[in-house]
């Protein structure tokens, strides 16, 4: 606009502040008078050339687009228009003259159907957002937007039950020659039949595809070919929240330009072993919110800059080589990555990951191998884990964190995205205290070397079998001569803690784990998860701590594969169904023999001894101590 002195200045944005008035009130924001006055001020007085308009209607009011707004919108220079919060079952043709419009956002207007020619006056439209409406069929006029680059159809209710509906849906989208970004998230695709013509030979060539939470169960076509074989330029792929139980290692191998792959919320529990081209560098691999118990073997080939494993069920892992592999050179060495290998090159271990997010898992301490594997990274986020500050490995954890903090390591440790110190979770009196400031108990190392446990056994059982556990197992073991200490979830779990945290802690604080096998156990999700964690510990420390007790005969055809393997490779106890009393006595003896001396009896035995220092004699040149029994022993 021009001022009185003849100089000029430019107003780039005008924001009108007003009290919220009810629709229909004079001069209210939904009234004809309001818009006429606004048009006069905006165009006549300010001489503004409008480029962007945002109309977020109050969803509490049932507003259709008023006829008096239409003249204000049309015939202007708007390039970016957003209209949201309306209650349209049917969207009429009110976009009459918007030749410069390139971006149109019609999110959350409850649109079910549209007039056929709604987008004819927007020939230059490049970005269209119809997310979170109630569209049953894709509007045919969308197919006429040949300059469209991005289309967001998130959260609509498309009818794709039959072949005609699928054909109509895909044919309209295939007319969009320049489309590069397609969002079909939260649409009921259910199978790859809808996607195959869109992504296959002669289909769209996309840079970004979001098909998250679409109910997909597979990514393979009927001929076994990968769904993405023809998508050479795809850079962004979001598959989160689908029901794909098994992902083939080479499911995305052909995507040589892929930068971001989202596989979160997929309920995976076994390592994926994903394969990429050897020199492929993926910017982000999101595996968060799954059920992984270890970070090992996630990527078999190729490299990843940012690996997100947050919000899983990882408690520990074995290999110090978890994030490195044998290769001739680091894939992160840009100057060498595309060069041919000299004949003298030798295989050495290089990291294939730079940054790992392990926040909000079940990690309560870090073993030597776990720390060693993290040392080769540039950063790791360990926030949200429940670190035990009286764990046997706590002194080593404390020293390692101090080394990193003193900048003697290239590793950076984050706490939920910040550089704040990691905190203790237990013991309860130290909850929230920085790990670096914790003082170690003087007898901690001695306790750890002695292999002390709080419980003799953690009992893994279904709640439906509680009667037998409480009436048979607990009285016999805890009140019998063995005086065993059992850990039961309903009695010994810490109130207020996450169930998963309680389970991991109970497994680690128990010398053995007794698994009560019944049909109820096999069908219980929590029981299966407890067994999975116990199975993970089995491979971690290679000890015979797992005791299987078959309370009732199981149908092996219905038993999970890993449980079948355990029952086939180790001796297990059977609760006798016939000649009960004699055979029960035999089973109890075998169980007590497997458990050995109880924690309580071992403590009683140890208390009978005291250490007495002796002066050196002619035959002994150094001081030493011997254990002498009390007089009453």
TrEMBL record:
Organism from which the protein derives: Timema poppense (Walking stick)
GO molecular function, one term: signaling receptor activity
Cross-referenced PANTHER family: MSTPROX-RELATED, TOLL-LIKE RECEPTOR
Compartments where found: Membrane
Membrane topology, from the record: Single-pass type I membrane protein
Pfam family, one: LRR_1
Family the UniProt entry places it in: Belongs to the Toll-like receptor family.
The entry's keywords: Glycoprotein, Immunity, Innate immunity, Leucine-rich repeat, Membrane, Receptor, Repeat, Signal, Transmembrane, Transmembrane helix
Designated name of the protein: TIR domain-containing protein
DNA-binding among keywords: no
Source taxon at top rank: Eukaryota
GO cellular component: plasma membrane
GO BP field: innate immune response; signal transduction
Record SUPFAM superfamilies: L domain-like, Toll/Interleukin receptor TIR domain
Ranges of residues in domain TIR: 453-595
């Amino acid at each position: 606009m021009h001022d009185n002195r003849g100089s000029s200045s430019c107003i780039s944005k005008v924001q009108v502040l007003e009290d919220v008035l009810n629709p229909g009130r004079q001069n209210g924001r939904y009234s004809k008078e309001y818009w006429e006055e606004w048009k006069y001020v905006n165009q006549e007085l300010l001489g503004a050339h409008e480029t962007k308009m945002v109309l977020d209607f109050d969803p509490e009011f049932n507003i259709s687009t008023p006829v008096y707004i239409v003249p204000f919108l049309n015939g202007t220079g708007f390039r970016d228009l957003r209209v949201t919060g309306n209650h349209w079952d049917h969207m009429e043709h009110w976009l009459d003259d918007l030749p410069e419009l390139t971006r149109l956002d019609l999110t959350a207007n409850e649109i079910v159907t549209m007039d056929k020619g709604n987008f004819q006056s927007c020939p230059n439209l490049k970005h269209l957002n119809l997310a979170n409406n109630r569209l049953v069929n894709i509007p045919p006029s969308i197919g006429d937007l040949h300059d469209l680059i991005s289309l967001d159809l998130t959260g609509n209710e498309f009818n794709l039950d039959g072949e005609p509906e699928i054909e109509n849906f895909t044919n309209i989208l295939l007319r969009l020659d320049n489309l590069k970004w397609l969002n079909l998230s939260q649409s009921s695709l259910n199978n790859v039949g809808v996607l195959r013509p869109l992504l296959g030979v002669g289909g769209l060539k996309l840079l970004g595809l979001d098909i998250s939470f679409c109910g997909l169960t597979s990514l393979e076509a009927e001929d076994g070919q990968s769904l993405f074989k023809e998508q050479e330029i795809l850079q962004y792929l979001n598959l989160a929240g689908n029901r794909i139980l098994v992902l083939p290692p080479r499911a995305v191998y052909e995507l040589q330009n892929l930068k971001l792959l989202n596989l979160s919320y997929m309920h995976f529990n076994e390592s994926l072993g994903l394969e990429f081209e050897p020199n492929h560098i993926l910017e982000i691999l999101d595996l968060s919110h799954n059920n992984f118990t270890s970070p090992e073997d996630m990527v078999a080939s190729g490299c990843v800059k940012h690996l997100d494993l947050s919000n899983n069920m990882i408690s520990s892992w074995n290999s110090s080589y978890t994030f490195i592999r044998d290769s001739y050179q680091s894939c992160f060495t840009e100057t060498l990555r595309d060069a041919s290998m000299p004949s003298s090159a030798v295989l050495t271990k290089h990291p294939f990951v730079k940054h790992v997010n392990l926040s909000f898992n079940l990690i309560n301490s870090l073993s030597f191998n776990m720390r060693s594997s993290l040392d080769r990274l540039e950063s790791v986020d360990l926030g949200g884990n429940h670190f035990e500050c009286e764990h046997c490995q706590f002194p080593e954890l404390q020293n390692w964190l101090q080394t990193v903090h003193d900048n003697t390591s290239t590793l950076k440790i984050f706490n939920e995205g910040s550089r704040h110190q990691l905190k203790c979770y237990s013991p309860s009196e130290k909850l929230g205290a920085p790990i670096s400031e914790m003082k170690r108990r003087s007898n901690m190392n001695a306790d750890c070397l002695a292999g002390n446990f709080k419980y003799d056994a953690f009992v893994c059982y279904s709640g439906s079998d509680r009667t037998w556990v409480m009436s048979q197992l607990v009285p016999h073991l805890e009140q019998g001569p063995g005086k065993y200490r059992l850990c039961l979830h309903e009695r010994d779990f810490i109130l207020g803690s996450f169930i998963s945290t309680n389970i991991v802690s109970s497994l680690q604080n128990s010398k053995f784990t007794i698994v009560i096998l019944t049909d109820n156990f096999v069908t219980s999700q929590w029981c299966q998860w407890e067994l999975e964690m116990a199975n993970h510990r089995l491979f971690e420390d290679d000890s015979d701590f797992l005791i299987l007790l078959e309370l009732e005969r199981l149908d092996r055809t219905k038993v999970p594969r890993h449980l079948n393997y355990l029952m086939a490779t180790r001796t297990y106890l059977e609760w006798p169904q016939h000649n009960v009393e004699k055979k029960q006595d035999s089973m109890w003896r075998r169980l007590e023999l497997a458990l050995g001396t109880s924690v309580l009896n071992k403590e009683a035995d140890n208390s009978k001894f005291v250490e007495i220092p002796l002066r050196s004699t002619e035959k002994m040149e150094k001081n030493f101590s011997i254990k002498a029994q009390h007089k009453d022993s």
